[in-house]
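Each lists chain and fold; for instance:
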Amino acid sequence: MNYGNTYILVGLSNQLKRRVEWINNKKLTIIIVLFFLTMLLAFTPRSEAQQNTVDEWPMFHHDSAHTGYSTSMGPLTNQTLWKFKTGNSVEYSSPSVVNGIAYVGSQDRTFYALDAATGSKIWTFVAGNSIKSIAAVVNDVVYVGSLDNNVYALNAKTGTQIWNYTTENQVYSSPIVVDGVVYIGSNDHHVYALNAEDGNKIWSFQTGNFVWSSPAVVNGVVYVTSWDYVYAIDASTGNKIWSFKPSDSMYSSPAVVGGVVYFGSNDHNLYALDADNGVKIWNFTTNGYVTSSPAVADGVVYFGSDDNNVYALNAETGQKLWSFKTGDAIDSYAAVTSGVVYIGSKDDYVYALDAKTGEKIWSYKTSADVESFTTVANGVVYIGSNDYYIYAIGAITAQQPASPSATSSPSPTVPEFPSLIIPLLLSIIVAIAGLLVYYKRKDNLVTT
């Protein structure tokens, strides 16, 4: 028997076992390292874009179609986040909320930029008369009208005036900005299209009476109500496409959804017209003026009436789904989000209603009429009142950018970098270094 060959084979077998064990240990090490790295990445703070995104409210009734619908969460309780006192009523103006700043005007002739989380004043701009217009905030520029006959463009961060365009009468209308053009009405009986960059007039369209409403712009068409007609105007040329005349004047602004134009009239009706030709599809009659601008979401139209009721109608047929009675007339428009309808009333209250049933979820009492319009952004309802205050109701649901000059900032709702991660990371580094030294020595033993 050849013992020499046997010893050689045994030695090779042991060496092979050590090599296989070394490879398996190395695989195990890699798996352990990958596991700890995965855990590390799981606990690493994500960028804001990866966190809860915020559907901002940059203009009248949220968007250029005036849907009044936001994907942001709204408050389910009526807790006060903050309130800010202006120098006069906050009547028809309501906050536009962009990049953590709430922009709103008052009858004290002042336009305010407030920290949306704290209510701290960032800057103010003083116009020559009351501001009842709702601002449009686009590309770091604030566009707003005033009863001093002007349309203003202001720097959104500083409030510095960029330009102004002077009409021939007061501007109640709220601007809409689409594709570099500002669309707005005036009491001089005109609708204007202005260059958003420099304020130069592109075209103007003459109506037969005051234009209080805010234009909606959808698919290259401007839809706007005047005190005489509803108009559809070519957005590029200013030429009339069609017009429709109810039996009374209109303050309500149109919403355009699914090829249908919805608006209210002082003849007590809410109308639905074909957006292509202005032909009436249906109308719903209330017992009072309908100055409230309709919101449209999930096939339902929500609006208020001077008969004290909030209504929900089937958007296709006009059939009433429910109504909710408040204590006074409703000029405020509804904001809809997450199955809740938010709206103000002249009975001094702000209401949150179940969008499907109309049942009251909560109410919030101010000290005067609420004719201002509801805005919902980042878990908060923003609204003004004739008691001079701007109210923020709810709680911030996502971290937002720090305001330029805010005196305080909201506490972060996103978890901070866990305190255990740094020691864990150091432990991993030490463990990997130790393993590398260990396997280097074993590798030397194996090769010898």
Q: What stands out?
A: Residues 80-394 form a domain with the Methylamine Dehydrogenase; Chain H fold (CATH 2.130.10.10).
